[in-house]
Amino acid sequence: ELIMSSQLRVDKILPVDGAPTGGGGGIIQVVHATATSEVTQGFSSDDFVTTGLEATITPKFTTSKILITGYLSWYIDQGSNTGNVEWNFAVCNSSGTVLDGTTASIRGYRRTTRVEGGKHPINFIHSPNTTSAYTYQMRMNAKTSANSCNLQCQVNGTANNISRLTLMEVSA
Hints:
0% of the residues lie in helices and 52% in strands. The chain is mainly beta. The strands form 2 sheets. Strands 1, 2, 4, 7, 9 and 10 form a 6-stranded antiparallel β-sheet that branches. The termini are far apart.
């Protein structure tokens, strides 16, 4: 009995009618990350600070797009304060630059809400235009008129409070 092994290697696979306008090829690689350590920010800054959720991908092609998905586990505790609260989550690069403040961030605003939390969905596509390692981070900022308020991610590091980030390189 003759057993043979073979490999098929190609540079590109295109649909019969060609690639759709604006890209739409296949998944080249996937990177996944989780964050379990609790991160707390007091309500006092316009600066975006890290949530501890980040992942790095090295695209194979400069034309590739990166599909970013996942969720950020968050929680707000205002204690006995009832002031206005505003917070933001955003997909940023490793320098903290918000990649797209309109589609990548969520702005929350609550009046007199003492405790709130949940899982913020992450769904964003980016064109890094590089074949060098590129780091994506979820960052947050918060402001309030109340005192002693905190915005937290991955509270207590429990299984229900883990944040997840998946990066998928998509061929153009």
